[in-house]
């Protein structure tokens, strides 16, 4: 009986070795590009600060080596005076990370790169934007949490609609 258990355990272990082993590891987090402009300084500081925030967020990823992927979150925050419409400041950031990912393929890899990895990077982008704006002499810009799952789902839906539209025009 003990021999049978050892043989079945050995067969299971052998079967698991045939499958690629799942690996996910964050290798590095870094700022790829950063910019801050306050084009109407110092006059913007001489009036009450009534901000209107415009936020643009995008993600991108690319394979840069064997099982190594770079994921980038691009954040653009443009704050204008709500009454006058003049730009108070423009902050842009590309927060990046290198991820070692193995054993994940196809749609699952696409989902990992498009939603999971940006969720890991966003707190760093958020802190960097907040610090940058504060150093520019403005009150902190505390970005709300972002649902990258929903952004990814919308992107996939848009791609499917575009593919369907392309099929109907042919």
Q: What features would you describe in this structure?
A:
With 170 residues, the chain is α+β, with helices and mostly antiparallel strands. α2 crosses α3. The chain is globular, with a radius of gyration of 23 Å. The longest helix has 30 residues, at 106-135. 41% of the residues lie in helices and 35% in strands. The protein is built from three helices and four strands; from the N terminus they run αββββαα. It holds the Pfam family SecB. It is found in: Cytoplasm. One of its GO terms (cellular component) is cytoplasm. It comes from Halomonas shengliensis.
Topology:
Layout: H1 2-18, E1 23-37, E2 51-65, E3 68-81, E4 87-102, H2 106-135, H3 148-169
Antiparallel strand pairs: 1-4, 2-3, 3-4
Name a few traits of the molecule.
alpha+beta; Bacterial Protein-export protein SecB; 3 helices; 35% strand; chaperone; SecB
């Amino acid at each position: 009986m003990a021999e049978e258990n050892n043989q079945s355990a050995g067969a299971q272990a052998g079967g698991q070795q045939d499958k690629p082993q799942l690996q996910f590891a964050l290798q590095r987090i870094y700022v790829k590009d950063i910019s801050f402009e306050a084009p109407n300084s110092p006059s913007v500081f001489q009036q009450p600060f009534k901000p209107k925030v415009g936020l643009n967020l995008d993600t991108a990823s690319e394979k840069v080596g064997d099982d190594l992927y770079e994921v980038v979150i691009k954040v653009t925050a443009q704050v204008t005076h709500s009454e006058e419409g003049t730009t108070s400041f423009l902050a842009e950031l590309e927060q990046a990370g290198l991820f070692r990912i193995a054993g994940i393929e196809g749609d699952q890899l696409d989902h990992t790169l498009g939603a999971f990895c940006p969720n890991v990077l966003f707190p760093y982008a958020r802190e960097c934007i907040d610090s940058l704006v504060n150093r520019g002499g403005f009150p902190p810009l505390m970005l709300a949490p972002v649902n990258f799952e929903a952004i990814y789902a919308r992107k996939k839906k848009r791609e499917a609609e575009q593919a369907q539209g392309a099929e109907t025009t042919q």
